[in-house]
Amino acid sequence: MPMNRARHVYLPVVMAVSGLLLFGVFRGLHHQESFTYSRVLMGTVVEITLREDSPELADTAFREMERLTALFSTYREDSELSRINSTAGRPVKVSPEVAELVGLALKVCRLTDGAFDPTVGSVVRFWNFGPGGRIPPEDELKKALSSVGCQNIVLDRDSGRVTLSRKGVSLDPGGIAKGYIVDRALEVLKKRGVRWVIINAGGDVAFYSASPSERFRIGIRHPDIEGRLLGILVVKSGAVATSGDYERYFIRDGVRYHHIIDPRTGLPARGLRSVTIVSGKAYLADALATAVFVMGKERGLKLVEDLDGVEAVVVDEDMRIYTSSGLKDAFTPVEE
Ligand code: AMP
Ligand code: MG
């Protein structure tokens, strides 16, 4: 895989990658030198920024991400996730990372009362959010919806087996896998002694500094205008992820059909334009961004307030911005 290298002598570093759901602005407090390495992975451009010029270190993280992508991708027929789906009804022995990912997805499914539900895959596959678009007919949706529900996933941690209850049930890790992979890449780098790093996987971002006083500035993308910021978050080591209706969508008769599906209806969730979650872990930020989008402003923000170490910025259909109580001083809207 080719790897590009960019040298930034002065920060702020501004990263703008097409397709980003989050447009990041990062600034080290002391304007230190940094080095950014990028690779196309998980359908996006992943950037790793270090304080040292070490393509070898970046490569270690990229290779871990590639390894995990090969396990999780439902675009690859030979991935373990695809095997779970094609073997629905029977147990499938999986790698520890797949078991962990499924376990975390089940945890968030319970936590969000099913607003985050990886079995939404049975519905998602009937939609096509690409150009042209496809709205599944009602009877198709109804049938697909009967296969949705986390009770259809059985994870046996002891034997490392995953069983989908029956044919038709389909796991879609799209709302959590990227975050999980970013977490794992960060772990690899921390184990190698890295003391400062930002990993940006197309809007799922993890950042770490060995110095607890360090703050990172993360820009949130404007839902309608690529390249424009909605606001800036100033946060300590952790992760930020955004889910928005502008990532994958088509417009039919003036209505936007996008890729975040309400598991109760099988239809795109309505009411919000984007949700950004701040959390200690990228997998949780990723999955909760999807879930809060489905739950809507009131229920979603209530859940966020109830969770320790989780904050949110929510944008509704009228472009009004709401933040959870812990972000009062940490989020600054960008004036137009
Ligand atoms: P994200 O961009 O993280 O919000 O993830 C969106 C992706 O997650 C979609 O493309 C689907 O593959 C999947 N997805 C859509 N709706 C849901 C949902 N309610 N729960 C879990 N995954 C979902
Ligand atoms: Mg998500």
Describe the structure.
The protein is of the alpha+beta class and 336 residues long. The protein has two domains: 4-67 and 177-333, T-fold (Roll); 70-174, ApbE-like superfamily (T-fold, Orthogonal Bundle). Helix content is 27%, strand content 29%. It has a nine-stranded antiparallel beta sheet, with helices on one face. It has a three-stranded antiparallel beta sheet with strand order 6-8-7, covered by helices on one side. A three-stranded antiparallel beta sheet has the order 11-12-19, with no helix packed on it. A hairpin with a 7-residue loop joins strand 11 (216-221) and strand 12. Helix 1 runs antiparallel to helix 6 (177-191) and helix 7 runs antiparallel to helix 8. The radius of gyration is 19 Å and the shape is globular. The protein binds adenosine monophosphate (AMP) and magnesium ion. Adenosine monophosphate binds at residues 116-118, 120, 124, 172, 174-175, 243, 247, 259-261, 263, 286, 289-290, 294. Adenosine monophosphate binds next to helix 7.
The CATH topology of the largest domain turns out to be T-fold
Instruction: Kindly give the count of domains.
Output: 2
Please report the number of helical segments: 8
Q: Return the CATH architecture of the largest domain.
A: Roll
What is the level 1 CATH name of the largest domain? Alpha Beta
The largest sheet has its strands arranged as 1-4-5-9-10-13-16-17-18
Instruction: Report, as a whole number of angstroms, the end-to-end distance.
Output: 40 Å
Low-confidence stretches: 1-30
> In angstroms, what is the radius of gyration?
19 Å
* Share of β-strand residues: 25-35%
Report the strand count: 19
Name of the CATH homologous superfamily of the largest domain: ApbE-like domains
Integer average pLDDT: 91
In which range does the helix fraction lie? 25-40%
